[in-house]
Amino acid sequence: LDFAAQMLDGFKAEMSALVRQTHPDCSIFYNAGHVGPATRTSVDSYSHLELESLPSSGHWGYLHFPYSIRFARGLGLACIGMTGKFHTEWGDFHSFKNPQALEFECFQMLAHGVGCSIGDQLHPDGALCPHVYERIGRVYEQVAAKEPWCRGARPVTEIAVFTPEEWSGEQLPAAAQGAVRMLQETALQFDIIDSHSDLGTYKLLILPDRIPVDDRLARKLNACFAAGGKALITFESGLDPSGRAFALSEFGVERAADQVCDESGNPVRGRYFEQHDYIDYILPHAPVAGDLAETEYALYTVGLRVEPTAQSTVWAETILPYFYRSWQRFCSHRQTPSCGKSAGAAIVATERSVYFSHPIFEIYQRWAPRWCKSLVVNAIDRLLGERLVRHTGPSTLLITLTDQPGRRNVHLLHYIPERRCEKIDIIQDIIPLYDIELSVAVDRPVRRVTSVPRGSALTFRQETGRAEFVLPLLRGHQIIEIQFEE
């Protein structure tokens, strides 16, 4: 695999050099259905990056684009997103994507600060279908009206999420998907990064579930801590490449000697059993419990057994079941209930970090327990302090921020993918939202707040570094321009 990657990188370098000898300004992109950490080694061969991602395909889905673009836009090249006109994917002739889905997929690209593209496939008779281009045209009319607030716009973020893809090679790791879901649902502003990314601009780093920390990454993390940065670490993240010890004392935990094993002696942490044969429960305490009752909550898997260090505080405990299910022991249809006995720390906090001993993001991707999101978001709020955005809308509301000279743009998207069929998610209806209260961090005096492109002024107030206002109606996608004083 390493040899194949070297050969591909070599081919790209040679071919791009040849093209540029003849046409220095020619655009170059090497076709791929994914852009990720593996692209970094050949990025100089590209003029720009195109993120092919048809959400209506079972291959990509609606998480692939927001995950991959949040990484790709950090590679230093202009980016463009690509969806398709098809109901499913390439080659689905005589099919039409629902116009609401086509809107969302294009407007989401604008909301992430990149261009948009809609793919088609030519019929063998060589004629374009006019009905397809009528549908595309109606979307692009709206894109054209919004372009002034999108050209040259720079995403504004507060959190960096490491992707396990760099180490596993898996293009859409479960931990990364869970993190994207969770953070999008809470309007937190974030990038996806790898160990080569610049960490200096972020207030908070998240290492989801399976991020090993070698000496080079440990030095970068130490530099962030020294500069006042903070980190949220989960499960096996933070362990050194051997997996035997944590790489940094700042994480506030040590790996326990005894780990849970099955009857064959194999570790069970992080493994999923259909009937939840091996399971942990979590008992949260203040301050991470928030509005959760201080009782046991199922985590559907076994975590890493850890011990807190002297400088850390235990915020939650791992609670055992009466027994692990096997052919010898049985209880009901699924897991055995809690016996109330603690197996040690589940959430540990220090001045600079919060550590979760379970693969909390993989758990969220698989089952989406609300209590898991609540615990993570409560921990993030303790680490992060004031967020860039707060709002009163539902968790289906997606919000991103971009900056242009003299203004900050707030993109709001409310389109809900539904699993209406066996194979793919569908967007068919636009459900309006009313009277959404928003609070956005700003660092300069605000002149006006406007709903664009129509130009409707919104009443606002500014205090303690935030602009606060109410959007009376959101139907699909809306950009709010916060214009600063000159």
Q: How would you describe the overall organization of this protein?
A:
Strands 6-5-7-8-15-14-13-10-11 form a 9-stranded mixed beta sheet. The chain has a 6-stranded antiparallel beta sheet with strand order 4-17-18-24-20-21. A 4-stranded antiparallel beta sheet has the order 16-19-23-22, with no helix packed on it. It has helices at residues 2-22, 61-72, 99-111, 130-146, 165-168, 174-185, 215-226, 360-367, 370-384, and strands at 49-52, 79-84, 115-119, 154-155, 159-162, 190-193, 204-207, 230-234, 253-255, 281-284, 297-298, 306-308, 313-321, 338-349, 353-356, 389-391, 398-404, 407-413, 433-441, 446-452, 456-458, 460-463, 466-474, 477-484. It has 9 helices and 24 strands. With 486 residues, it is of the alpha+beta class. Helix 3 packs parallel to helix 4 (130-146). 23% of the residues lie in helices and 26% in strands. It starts with a helix and ends with a strand. Strand 7, helix 7 (215-226) and strand 8 form a beta-alpha-beta unit.
Offer a quick outline of the entry.
The protein has 486 residues and is an alpha+beta fold. Helix content is 23%, strand content 26%.
The count of helical stretches stands at: 9
- Amino-to-carboxy terminus distance: 54 Å
Radius of gyration: 24 Å
The tally of strands reads 24
* Biggest pleated sheet: 9 strands, mixed
- Average of per-residue pLDDT values: 97
Q: Which segments are poorly predicted (pLDDT under 50) over 5 or more consecutive residues?
A: none
